[in-house]
Known about the structure:
Helix content: 25-40%
Strand order of the largest sheet: 1-2-4-3-5-6-7-8
CATH topology: Rossmann fold
CATH superfamily: Alpha/Beta hydrolase fold, catalytic domain
Shape: globular
Largest sheet: 8 strands, mixed
Number of helices: 12
Number of strands: 8
Amino acid sequence: MNRNPINYSQFRAQQKTFNSKNGRISYIDKGKGDVILLLHGVPTSSWLYRHMIDDLSQKHRVIAPDMLGFGASDSPKGYEIYSQEQHATRLLALMEELKINSWTHVTHDAGGLWTWELVKKNPNKISKLVLLNTIIYDEGFDPPVRFKPGIIAKAVMWSYKNGFTTKAMLKGLFKSGLTENTLNKIDIEGYKKPLLEGKTKAMYYFFTQTCNDLPNYKEVLSKLNIPVLVIWGKTDSFLKWPPQKEQVISDLKIQEKNIHIIDAKHFIQEEQPEHINALILDFI
């Protein structure tokens, strides 16, 4: 598979829009057949999956949204609208608008929280689940930063818009989140532009609320009875598999053959997209 050389402007030009009750959501809709939903986390967007979408869409219909407050989607005023419950409600609304009743669900990072809330609201939508270094239990959760709500956190989020701080933040994020940071200017542009556009309110909610009081979804996970695939970067310092693996395997009833710990850190879609795609397609 040749990695997609597309730039961010071209990527955005491919996106469609859905008008949720809170604002416009941009999303990729590509291919035909059984549906795969690719869900990003914080502070990324569907751009994270740019090296995976084309290959997956050769055999499947791929939906890759920018959640509200991220990527090319709107970033309306307020903070509670970025709660995991609200994100899940909008995601279900998007899939209903697209007349998609069930799908293979791929989730990364904070997308796990939005996924568990979606399952709480409607447990019958996800037919197969793929976990890519995503938030599950507190034992494996070690975010790079936590803030108390208030003026300091808001000032930090504001600073991410000014260019210099934006660049420094992303450099630090990828230094910690990649085994080797080989991202070029085209790669970085897709992560930087939304921040320069001021899309930090959803980040503020995550780092001041969610990170300080992670919900416990054990009951939700224990009730799931669908095939689950785990693909996890073994040296991820943000989301760690070993401290929570026994609990996750037990609660989600994961078969050993469906657990793949790969040589990567947190942003495994940047490091090993070909390997991840092969595992997902084989699983489906």
